[in-house]
Write a structure and sequence with these properties.
Chain B: It comes from Thioalbus denitrificans. The complex is a heterodimer of chains A (536) and B (205). In chain A, 24% of the residues lie in helices and 14% in strands. Chain A contains 15 helices and 17 strands. In chain A, strands 7, 8, 9, 10, 11, 13, 15, 16 and 17 form a 9-stranded mixed beta sheet that branches. In chain A, strands 1-2 form a two-stranded antiparallel ribbon. Chain A has a two-stranded antiparallel ribbon with strand order 3-4. The N and C termini of chain A lie far apart (125 Å). The longest helix of chain B is centred in the first third of the chain and has 29 residues, at 41-69. Chain B has a two-stranded antiparallel ribbon. Classes of the chains: A alpha+beta (536), B mainly alpha (205). Chains A and B meet through helix 11 and helix 15 of A and helix 2 and helix 6 of B.
Amino acid sequence: MSCSRIIPGGLLLAGLLLWLPLAAATDAGSGIPASTADHGKFEVLQGPFESGPEVTRACLTCHTEAARQLHRTKHWTWEYQHPETGQVLGKKHEPNVFCGSILSNYPRCTSCHIGYGWEDASFDFSSEENVDCLACHDTTGTYSKFPTDAGHPLYADRMVKGKLVQAPDLAQVAQHVGMTSRETCGACHFSGGGHDGVKHGDLDSSLIEPDQALDVHMAADGLDFTCATCHTSDRHQVDGSRYRMTAKDGHGVDIPGRDDGRASCESCHGDRPHAADHDKLNDHTDRVACQTCHIPEFARGGIATKTFWDWSTATRLDENGKPITRLDEHGHAVYLSTKGDFRFGENVQPEYHWFNGTVKYTRFGDAIDPDQVVSVNDIEGSADDPDSRIWPFKVMRGRQPYDKVTNTLLVTHVFGKDDTALWTNFDWSRALGAGMAEAVAVGEVTQPFSGEYGFVDNRMFWPITHMVAPAGEALGCAECHSQDGRLANLEGVYIPGRDAFGILDTIGWIVVVLTLLGALAHGIARFLVKRKPREA
Amino acid sequence: MTKLYLYARFERFWHWTQAGLIIWLMITGFEIHGEYELLGFGRAVQIHTLLAWALMVLWVFAIFWHLTTGAFRHYLPSNPLPQCAKSLAEVARYYALGTFLGEKHPFRKSVEAKHNPLQRMAYLLFFATLVAPVIWVSGLAYLFYPQWQGQGPGWLSLGTVAIVHTAAAFGMLIFFIAHVYMATMGKTVFSLIRGMITGYEEVEH
């Protein structure tokens, strides 16, 4: 075959491939895109573009207010002031049980920020051109932020661990922007904690094309919801918060004018969603979250989620002084010198707790009791609180470093090419010193690292709300209404079938048996006596 | 010996339907309480609820019937109190002793007085004080718990309702056992039961 015959065929194929993303957004038959604007026709988007911010400048020529809207969102600020607890939270501030904190680790962590170049605490949050439009609006699937480049994509092809990683064609991506998708949201939210499925347990890449059994709403052959179908947005403010969740949506079905966001089950299903012949189930909705019965397990899509992370074992090196990597039979790292011991889970049964939507954090300056399990985040709510319901959680457990003198959680400087980063130097003292120095510098804590560290048992609550199974696979009654059921340890409420009254039941059955025995004895006596001749 | 028509058609219908409902209410009720697994919790709840509604409807008819026919009088003490205690003691003595000595039952049934003093007292105390209000009130409170929770007094929780309902259920089971046994204490083991089916009972005069 000659080149002259391959090239036209190749061009045709390439052309078809390029057309694919557009075809998806095109109204079938008419040939006209669903959007009112074909971005491919805008002169300002023809490129070439040298950098992400350059693309943003082009976007802003038409979408003049977009960046200022973004600036007000958590996606940009990574900061959230909780109105009830008063705590200042958000990724920028809060500790977690995974890599600990973004403090001192900016370039790695901020690859998920919707901005460009958040390399250190001096990042300019008022910059409009540093908003990354493409992270959320790419439709080509070719745009990605490079994991260690502080939110920038690659601008030139780069060799990474022996593999060539291609830089995205920014002009091509810019000309094919559109609505957010499962892929764009998932790029960060599926890979929280550094890898697919690691953090949430109910969010991973299996949701990009799920079947009905995995997610009845997002099923590609069913309702085909995207994230934005429920997580609606106004002025780029996306509904749904894990700091202040709508644990109980009293509004019911959302009606325009009374709309308080659609990111709850009740927004579409109301609060008595079951058919009349299952009316008892409707009675449950005031105290039991929909998710509790309708998400029987998480991490169901074939992707494991991390369930345990023990930092205390990190920094062990082999006899040659080289870092160790141990994998399990599924290929998951169960030990890394950089990170310690891990456990993973698939098809994990959630744990159940009362939850009113408020999440409170143990922040870096807060005193902890190292003899107790530290709840890095704690969920509020109780059986006595009418705004609380029983919710399913992934409870992530592990051990993380704390200061033995100040009894506070510590920031670990994990990432960087400098000689204090844990992942480079395997020296806890220096890594903690550098991490805490940054925490002091940005005002997150007042006391620097004392030099004495230990490891404390920790846990973190992750509410489960995605991967909704089809109704037929929802939990049966006996899953909770039984003595060793899923709610065996839930306090504060009488659950028929689970709870009994020891003394009453014992006395009750004793009297029942005595009555039976009495009747039996009386009857036998009657029978025996009757056989004797009667006296007249 | 005389054959008396003691139990009217509705009375028999009411008695046996109630018996069946109560037996199944106990079977499903104790399953809901977690004593065993038979139908499955969900189905047990569904059936228990349906039976309860059926029994309530039956009771509405039964109360109407008792009031309109005057049959309720059979459940009231037959004599003034001092005599009542005496006749009660007589009947009790018969069951404890007399029956073994071949004595005759001290009470004579008639169309006007179908129940002996002990029966009257047992039915009155049991049905008027245990079944209604205890079982009904606690059962309805149990059923409608989602509608009133948080609105009642602080001490009134589902747990309180459940403990009362369970205690009443034990009372019902104990009554049931005693009642069935006593039903075998006629002239022959089945004579009283036959009477409750046909309506006719042979009575000595």
